Amino acid sequence: MARFPTWVVITLAGALSLSLAGCSSTGGKRAEDARKAAAAQGRAAVNTPRWTFAMITHSGDGDTFWDIVQSGAKQAAVKDNINFLYSHDAEAQQQAQLVDAAVDKKVDGIIVTLAKPDALKAAVARAERAGIPVITVNSGSAQSKAYGALTHVGQDETVAGEAVGQELTERGRKKVLCVLHEQGNVGHEQRCAGVAKAFSGTVENLYVNGTNMPDTQAAIGARLQADRSVDAVVTLGAPYADTAVKAKADAGSRAEVDTFDLNAKVAAELKDGTLGFAVDQQPYLQGYQAVDLLWLYKYNGDVLGGGRPVLTGPQIVTKDQAATLEEYTKRGTR
Fold this sequence. Notes:
Blueprint: H1 6-40, E1 52-57, H2 64-79, E2 83-88, H3 92-104, E3 109-112, H4 117-129, E4 134-137, H5 141-144, E5 152-154, H6 157-170, E6 175-180, H7 186-198, E7 202-207, H8 213-226, E8 232-235, H9 238-251, E9 256-260, H10 264-271, E10 278-280, H11 283-300, E11 310-311, E12 315-317, H12 319-330
Parallel strand pairs: 1-2, 1-3, 3-4, 4-5, 5-11, 6-7, 6-8, 8-9, 9-10
Antiparallel strand pairs: 10-12
């Protein structure tokens, strides 16, 4: 007979009794509502000090990807008794100033993206000199260790690009348009470079103004009209996938549209076949793990990764997985 540690037995017994009590006295729905209410009240699962962690990203206004990152970070912050602060700016110099502001506030930990790493180097170094532990997230895996961060949480963008290139090759595509919506973002460049490295056909980069969707749609449509040999379009963010679908229709193109990242719209379009596939880097997990790893470091001196990034992707998502993931995207966790 299998034996389990005492703490496992106690934990399972407690969980089972709570589950049965919830089902018998109030019903499954009421038990779930109670669980959600408890989380909303901010009840911590630990009794460690109420440390303050600041997350500073390169997100622009209205980028739903970062809503999902925040959702994960906030959930971990509730569990870990953390006061969570979030700020963002798409301009690298302003983002660096936000890091400086967090240092001035003497926060207990900083989570930062390095989409434009050179502009953030001095600010991250200042945090290190102040004795504030730093974890990088989402972008900047190549610079994270050199800048003194504890670890990096995210996907390796080159590896993710290679996964896309391999998938496109298996699908028999010959010419790909890789749409970069944020010039200067090293992660975006790495993605398209990875696609080109692993793809057996031809890859052409198209730079667009990602802050203006009508312009982005027009630019993609014009390129598809000019070159009928393009049989696949890859966008680097979920909000741009539907824009590419509209541009494809405008141009009368038959190119397959695929995308990095996932949201409710992408899941629905995967499900109905409008999109070929998506690459999920699990932003909820990025936010959750970044907060949790900072807490572990503060509490127990733990560091994951051994100097290498803690990978959250890539995961190729197709129509087969879309129905399941659609439920998660609607609740804001995928």
